[in-house]
Specification:
This protein has 898 residues and is α/β, with parallel strands linked by helices. It is 15% helix and 34% strand. It is globular and about 95 Å long.
Length: 898
């Protein structure tokens, strides 16, 4: 009986006894009010009289849900300063009561209540569990389950630290919000929803005897902040024996058990984490010892957390974790081919070996890693394996980087995660297609996947009615090809070219629009003779009033709609001057019913040289709830970098910033959709849709833009909308400071030649701090200067000959220039050299990571945002910084000046 673990039903008598005990509680009220899933609640109890080891004092707290009888029992933990704490995360709304139990009188007999309300953030989820051999995530006010693909992201070289910095003491440094946000944003930019951490060292977990409070304070922050941002954390507890990364004392010793109980009491109530015992386990630990560890955690945790031990099975409620290398594969029971599964059939066989537990490949499948004679993890193998693991039924794995090599086609990983965001259903089952086509099916919902083809057979003979379908090229940035509405029967879809294709048939999201009632011809070729309601020749997809939204931006976290936006006109509340550069807000449709979706197009009109755009929009959250941002023709993942700050359900605000990326030109157009805001109608009434906007050109300079606001009406009786607020973004003004030119005399033979010029940042208030180095023909450094505010430099008394200048400045790519000083004393004036900005991490390459670092700190002042993300040094990470980095993506230094 595996899945009884979510809660225990108790008789009414037990509830009555618990309520009776409330009358004898302490004088100070411990009652609290909270929301389901997040944030967790915490209580402090002073206990100054205890004289033993405080980490060994046993005390528990029992929480009882009044309506269902669900029980959660958790331990207290020592927090220093003679204080014990306990925590609670609500899994249901309603009234909970609690009572404390301990042999210590200071900690015994305390009572209280917790009133739990629904969480105002609809995206907050609960604990990761499982249904059969699929991972499942708790959602909603009462813990409904939805399917989840556990793909874990690890960057072993964190962008702000040294190699291996997410190991060992590095976990302590991630208490820094900027560092953690950078790591989370880097994972989200690929579509991953789980990140990896590994303290692994005894002296990080403990002081040799007792748990370290600073380590657990860091883990509190890492887990809770990641969960708040919609991310999970996978922890490794230990490492290998050779490096001493093993439990204190000995395995399951008194000190080790003390740590296990502390983990259960302090981290157990926190949702959003899973834990593996570590790596190289076959060298130093047995299956029986591993199972004892897992049993200790589960028996002390009041909430479920999935555990794993690479190469070994644990308990019935845990993951089956596979090894693919070393002694784990030799000694363990769970292993794959060297360096990972060799085929789809191997993955399917692993999953079929146990249908009652989820499966995890807990090796680290780093890009370009090759181990134990197995094949290298190339970009192609990574992309292909992600699809194998999902199509087999949902095997988890660890991905990412170990060194400097990064995925050359990150859009392929984002496409995978984008496709499966709302499509991995718990009732999807693998279908034997009898061919190279992989098929998953749940009633009238199908997913087909086939490699290296332009013709995919679709056996839809079991369909009970017409269903919509879309196709996606898994090797490209996410873009859906609308296949129309397909009829039951066997048919073949002919792709426009050969690739690896995925096709989704059916309605996967309860929030999607219902199937159309008109008869539409399928865009497939039936295998047999067409029936009167089928057509053998594909028919073109109807062109909508507005262009279809393209792939979600790389920083957007939720699913995009797959439906075509309808037509309709907006109800403008402002009238821009004729011919003025304008941002028009156009809801599609302008009126809808509760539960339906609304697409607000932000259309640019009469714009010239527009490179970046920031909008801060406001609606009545009692009428509309923001969902996702969709790319438009102006700004999409194919041509831009987009920062989605997310919809705020408390006040209805939504900030989105976008910049075109190199080599895409600035926007000059009479009318073009910039991007789309996707809303769901949640209540009756009318709401204004108002936005303030900032637009800049390719140099980061502001350009005028008038906003034509709109209004949306729900078809039910009008409700009073709260006043809207327009938030004007700050417009920093940089004033260059001129200082006298700097003249240095290199130690060379005196001649009449000279070299002068101006070195400039791409966008900054002054040009101080740029280094100009002069090298001779043999590339030997001769002399260097550092500029003051004007950026001017000058070298005098330079011998005739050929020289090289190297110009470098912080957050910018360096530049080189070859020049010749002629005999005769003629001066060389090199003019102004502008350094490309946006090298946030200082590796002389402006790439997606630099943009992610800026995006992760967008609209944040410096500090707390790192100074490195404020490229133009105006004290805030804003649209101008985003335009600089996005406009230079793909450049690497040093750049060669003419």
């Amino acid at each position: 009986m595996k899945h009884i673990r979510l809660y225990i039903i108790v008789p009414a008598l037990l509830i009555a006894l618990a309520l009776l005990r409330l009358s004898v509680g302490s004088a100070a009220s411990l009652d609290q009010t909270g929301t389901v899933w997040s944030p967790y609640l915490e209580w402090n109890l002073p206990n100054p009289t205890y004289t033993g080891n405080p980490f060994d004092l046993a005390a528990t707290v029992t929480f009882v849900h009044g309506d269902s009888g669900e029980i959660r029992r958790t331990g207290m933990f020592y927090a220093g300063d003679n204080t014990w704490k306990f925590r609670f995360t609500a899994t249901r709304t309603g009234l909970w009561t609690f009572t404390t139990q301990s042999d210590d009188p200071d900690l015994n007999g305390h009572t209280g209540t917790v009133v739990v309300n629904p969480n105002p953030d609809p995206n907050i989820t609960g604990f990761l569990t499982s249904v059969g051999n699929k991972f499942a995530l708790q959602t909603g006010p009462d813990g409904q389950l939805r399917g989840f693909l556990l793909n874990i992201y690890q960057n072993q070289i964190d962008p702000n630290g040294a190699p291996g910095s997410i190991f060992l003491e590095g976990v302590l440094s991630f208490k820094d919000p900027n560092r953690l946000n950078t790591y989370l944003q880097e994972a989200r930019s690929l579509g991953f929803r789980t990140v990896f951490f590994a303290p692994v060292d005894d002296l990080v977990w403990t002081d040799g005897t007792n748990p370290r409070l600073d380590t657990f304070a860091a883990l509190d922050f890492i887990i809770s902040e990641s969960h708040r941002q919609g991310m999970g954390v996978h922890l490794w507890l230990w490492g290998d024996a050779e490096r001493g990364w093993t439990p204190p004392g000995s395995i399951n010793s008194a000190a080790d058990k003390r740590l296990q109980r502390y983990i259960a009491a302090r981290l157990g109530p926190l949702p959003g984490w899973t834990m593996g015992y570590g790596f190289d386990l076959g060298e130093w630990v047995t299956e029986a010892q591993l199972q004892e560890w897992a049993n200790t955690l589960h028996s002390n945790m009041g909430w479920e957390h999935l555990l794993s031990a690479r190469g070994f099975p644990l308990l019935e409620q845990d993951m089956l974790s596979y090894s693919s290398s070393g002694t784990e594969a030799a000694r363990g029971k769970l292993y794959t081919s060297p360096n990972g599964p060799a085929s789809f059939e191997e993955v399917a066989a692993d999953l079929d070996s146990s249908t009652g537990q989820p499966h995890l490949y807990e090796e680290r499948f780093f890009y370009q890693r090759s181990a134990d004679g197995g094949p290298t993890w190339t970009m192609e193998r990574t992309r292909q394996s992600l699809w194998w693991y999902a199509m087999a039924g949902g095997v988890g794995a660890i991905w990412g980087y170990r060194g400097g090599n990064r995925y050359p086609n990150p859009e392929q990983i984002l496409t995978f995660n984008r496709f499966w965001e709302n499509r991995f259903l718990l009732d999807l089952e693998r279908v034997n297609s009898g061919s190279s086509t992989r098929v998953l099916r749940a009633d009238d919902r199908y997913v087909f996947y086939q490699e290296n083809t332009n013709a995919i057979p679709l056996d839809l003979s079991a369909l009970t009615g017409r269903q919509p379908a879309v196709a996606v090229d898994t090797k490209k940035a996410y873009a859906e090809i609308d296949l129309g509405v397909l009829q039951p029967g066997s048919q073949t879809w002919t792709a426009p070219y050969v690739s690896d294709w995925a096709i989704a048939v059916g309605w996967f999201d309860a929030g999607e629009a219902q199937p159309p009632t008109s008869t539409e011809a399928p865009t497939t070729t039936p295998t047999g003779t067409p029936s009167p309601t089928e057509t053998a020749t594909p028919t073109p997809t109807e062109t909508p009033t507005l262009p279809l939204p393209t792939e979600t931006a790389i920083l957007t976290q939720t699913e995009l709609p797959t439906t075509t936006p309808g037509g309709g006109s907006s109800i403008p509340t402002t009238t821009p001057p004729a011919g003025a550069a304008t941002l028009r807000l156009m809801p599609q449709p302008p009126a809808a019913r509760t539960g339906e979706t609304v697409l607000v197009a932000l259309e640019l009109a009469n714009v010239t040289d527009l490179y970046g755009l920031e909008v801060r929009c406001q609606i009545n959250p009692q009428v509309l709830n923001g969902m996702t941002v969709s790319g438009g023709e102006g700004f999409s993942s194919a041509n831009s970098f987009i920062v989605d700050k997310g919809f705020n359900p408390a006040d209805g605000s939504w900030t989105v910033a976008a910049s075109r990326t190199r080599p895409n030109p600035a926007i000059t157009a009479g009318a073009i959709p910039a991007f789309y805001l996707n809303y769901t109608v949640v209540g009756a009434g009318t709401t204004d849709i108002t936005c303030s906007a900032t637009a800049v050109n390719s140099s980061g300079q502001s350009i005028p833009l008038t906003v034509a606001n709109s209004r949306f009406e729900a078809t039910a009786p009008e409700a009073t909308a709260p006043p809207t607020a327009t938030h004007e973004p700050p417009t920093p003004t940089a004033t260059p400071t001129e200082t006298p030119s700097l003249t240095l005399t290199p130690t060379v033979e005196p001649v009449a030649g000279s070299i002068s010029g101006v070195a400039a940042y791409q966008s900054a208030p002054d040009n101080a701090g740029i280094t100009i180095q002069l090298l001779d023909a043999q590339q030997t450094p001769l002399v260097s200067v550092v500029t003051e505010g004007s950026g001017a430099y000058r070298f005098t008394d330079v011998l005739p000959g050929t020289y090289t200048l190297i110009i470098s400045g912080p957050l910018h790519l360096s530049a080189t220039r070859t020049l010749t000083v002629a005999a005769g004393g003629l001066p060389v004036d090199l003019g102004t050299a502008v350094l490309p900005g946006g090298d946030v991490d200082g590796n002389q390459a402006i790439d997606l990571l630099d943009a992610s670092l800026v995006g992760g700190n967008y609209d944040v002042s410096v500090p707390p945002a790192p100074a490195s993300t404020d490229i133009n040094r105006d004290g805030r990470v804003d649209l101008r910084d985003l335009v600089i980095v996005a406009g230079n993506i793909g450049l690497s230094g040093p750049v060669t000046l003419p």
